[in-house]
Amino acid sequence: MHPDESAPWIPPGTDPGQPRQVRRILKLFRPYRGRLAVVGLLVGAASLVSVATPFLLKEILDTAIPEGRTGLLSLLALGMILSAVLTSVFGVLQTLISTTVGQRVMHDLRTAVYGRLQRMSLAFFTRTRTGEVQSRIANDIGGMQATVTSTATSLVSNLTSVVATIVAMVALDWRLTAVSLLLLPLFVWISRRVGRERKKITTQRQKQMAVMAATVTESLSVSGILLGRTMGRADSLTKSFAEESEGLVDLEVRSNMAGRWRMAVISIVMAAMPAFIYWTAGLALRFGGPAISIGTLVAFVSLQQGLFRPTVSLLSTGVQIQTSLALFQRIFEYLDLPIDITEPEDPVHLDEVKGEIRFEDVEFHYDDKSGPILDGIDITVPAGGSLAVVGPTGAGKSTLSHLVPRLYDVTGGRVTLDGVDVRDLDFDTLARAIGVVSQETYLFHASVADNLRFAKPDATDEELHTAAKAAQIHDHIASLPDGYDTIVGERGHRFSGGEKQRLAIARTILRDPPVLILDEATSALDTRTEHAVQEAIDALSAGRTTLTIAHRLSTIRGADQIVVLDSGRAVERGTHEELLELGGRYAALVRRDARLETTGS
Questions:
Q1: Quick one: how far is CA 386 from the chain centroid?
Q2: Domains in the chain, please, with CATH?
Q3: CA 34, CA 51: separation in Å to the nearest integer?
Q4: Of the candidates 514, 576, 568, which has an alpha carbon nearest to the alpha carbon of residue 546?
Q5: Rounded CA gap, 83 and 267, in Å?
Q6: How distant is the alpha carbon of residue 53 from its chain centre?
Q7: Quick check: 408 pLDDT over 70?
Q8: Neighbouring residues of 364: CB distance < 8 A, sequence distance ≥ 6
Q9: 530-570 pLDDT, tens per residue?
Q10: Considering just the CA atoms, what is the radius of gyration of the chain in Å?
Q11: Which has the closest alpha carbon to 295: 53, 62, 52, 56?
């Protein structure tokens, strides 16, 4: 077992600082800077057009109506209507482009995270819950949708509107403008406090959602349901889920209510500002101050009301950005995961693989704190030869088989394929050369044909039938009402263990790899089913280099070479007959198997 399997790997120093994080976020939009420039132009045009409306209103009140100039009145009214139309059109175009850009950025993020995880070693997935991974891709990236699709554009739009409106207000009356903006610094300070508070809560909320996703993934799978029902734990699981959901309720309420009263105070003050402006203008006139025309006063209040919406929106956007930084940080954690199994810069490509496997003084341990899993392994498997590896649980058998296809990399020595270190080969060569059939057969929730074609997407129906016949599963598939179009169910639960194994063997036959790894492929099967599967395995193994991890020793008596592992070291090796004659650990294992079979019969 790997250390700390209960917790996902978190890279050190995941809080690189807000400025660096913001730069990384902006970098995501770089491929779309042309479209964003168009959005900027539309935003600027919309802001200028909307600001013109109060000035048209001023002229209507101060000039057109008092002087009875109906022609000018009609033009000014038409201008106000045209301003509203243009503002709406610019807004629709701006929304279309910004939403498209935002969705493309989310697509890029999802693809980047998924691609990164596809390149992680097997060790990462053995210590990370599946639901945690799913939550990062679905919940965290989904939670950023508002930010990447509209918040950035909203920020630019509102900022432009605020600047243009303030300039227009100054042009009308700088003294009223100064009065209007007195409390703005206080509002900014309040919104920053609210943003930091919501960011902290959002981090907690996303962690809780990840825990819930993991619980759902594990307990509502077919295997989870079977385990819960047969163990009588359905009510307990429901209660546990309810407790986790209750915690999420509290976090959601806190997230939505964080700073609401403070933001409400800002809204009340902003809404009361027109009354304050009228009161200020009236006092100024009463005590001998400069007179302000009705048109100017109405236009100024109109601008101030226009300033209210983008200012509050701008403050709320700042809060939203602070919240989204927590989501971006969780995504960047996965994007920053170190990839410990990589393709070399100048990889070796083998057009034809013969299949000779060598383990040369191989050592392996999961980390510096754990002891060696494998130590000093020297084994050669000639091309077309067969090697069987046996030993007690925890001896390192499966780990040895995982080193050949580079699910793990050796920490000492090397593993070679046709004389080339597997670490120097390109991934395509390894994928074509090595086929794996394990005890835990994985089938997708798709048709039989789709599951088989996962190994060879362009396989014809005839090739599917040939592979299935070799795996001795064709007759069973043909007897089903939908034949090869039969949906196998979640993880293949509509098929028995032996049938799933034979489907996996048929899938591997389609790939036709020169090297075959059988990792305890029949250990979970009954004797009768094992016999049928073993016949399929024999057909698959013919002419291939075969590495078999054996649980039942009856399946490997014909192997060219048998190696006994114990505590990570090869303690015995030879043929079946040679090891029996030696009378050591292998002979003891054979006697144990014989006793078990006798007891079972």
A1: 40
A2: 15-171+311-340 (1.20.1560.10), 357-599 (3.40.50.300)
A3: 26
A4: 514
A5: 27
A6: 47
A7: yes
A8: 372, 373, 374, 396, 399, 403, 408, 410, 411, 412, 568
A9: 676 677 777 777 788 999 887 777 778 888 999 999 888 99
A10: 35
A11: 62
Of 130, 111, 139, 104, the closest CA to residue 8 belongs to 130
CB-based burial of residue 326 (10 Å sphere; 0-12 exposed, 13-18 middle, 19+ buried)?
buried
Token pair listed for 152: 């950035």
Burial (Cβ within 10 Å: 0-12, 13-18, ≥19) of residue 236:
exposed
Give the pair of three-digit tokens for residue 66: 């008092």
What is the token pair recorded at 168? 């227009």
Inter-residue contact 134 to 213 (CB < 8 Å): yes
Q: What tokens were used for 52? A: 């013109």
Q: Where are the alpha helices (DSSP H) in 173-259?
A: 174-180, 184-219, 222-230, 234-257
The CA angle 548-550-555, to the nearest 5 degrees, is: 90
Phi first, then psi: give them for residue 39, nearest 5 degrees.
-60, -40
Average confidence (pLDDT) over 274-290: 69
What does the block give as tokens for 259? 């700073």
Could you tell me whether strands 412-417 and 420-421 are parallel, antiparallel, or unpaired per DSSP bridges?
A: antiparallel
566: left (phi over 0), alpha (psi -120 to 50) or beta: beta
pLDDT digits (tens, 9 = 90+) for 448-501: 898 898 888 888 999 999 888 888 888 889 998 889 998 887 766 778 777 888
Task: Name the 3-class secondary structure at 217.
Answer: helix
